[in-house]
Amino acid sequence: MKKNLHLSDFTNLASSSSIPKYYGEALVALAKENPRVVALTGDLAPATESDLFREAFPSRFFASGIAEANMIGLAAGMARGGDIPFVHSFSVFLTRRAYDQIAMQLAYPQLNVKLAGFLPGLTTLLGVSHQAIDDLALMRVLPNLTIIEPSSGKQTAAAVRAAAKIEGPVYLRLHKDKTVISNAEVEQNLEVGKGQLLLDGDDAIIFASGYMVAEALVAADLLSKSGIKVSVANMHTLKPFDTNFVMQHTTRTGVVVTAENHSVIGGLGSAVAEVLAEDPSSASIKFKRIGIADTFAEGGTTNYLFNKYGLSASHISDAVLKLLNVGS
Known about the structure:
The protein has 328 residues and is of the alpha/beta class. Helix content is 37%, strand content 20%.
């Protein structure tokens, strides 16, 4: 049985003068242990926290300029030479602009390159050009590629360590988080390919990833005030996907909601739907995807965008209530 979390378990760091650089610090720590680790960036060192690596290991840091496809080629060559390159850019540029290079130069030959993408989904003021709402759909379809999206800033360190242990290409979907989930299991542990049960309840289950894990926990707290006990699972690994974990908790509760900061097409919701569609025992399961509808979004703060496009905790809790036929 997992410890139940409530709103009081969340520590708001919004008043802090700066956001902790969990990823940057984790990468530097890894590089101190392993001299094979190098870093590349597409002219976005401070925004991707790789500036910490640049300061600590200037001879192992490479600025490729705004040329993501070339940067992937450089990383592929370095990997063939024995390095472990960590490649940095915003998620939308890293995946969409260099997709063919990732497919042919990294995934196909299974080279040991780690892709660190920032600003996933609706977490930027910069609008459509910078919002990665299709990156998971693109990356999930590539063979030999592991996809990890940590649930909070502090779980990022575990994600970096896990990625480094994988002999092959990894896509890290990262966000700069002002909220710390006060749960040691979430912050310190990450077993690739294994779902993480954070809350245990029998009425429904919410499968969430990345930024949406915190939203799902708040939604669970809202539902608990109405006497509804839901499970919340952190699906930090999108590929390989923990199908056994999904079926175990889906059949136990019978009501399933997925929550992702991504299009409802091709990401976490699709992964869960694929599992359910192929298992005859799931025929009676009630299912709803929470994510970005088939649309582009405007720019704005994360809170504003999540409310407008249906990703907030209240939208998640409402979805659970509708599936349970409560208040309808």
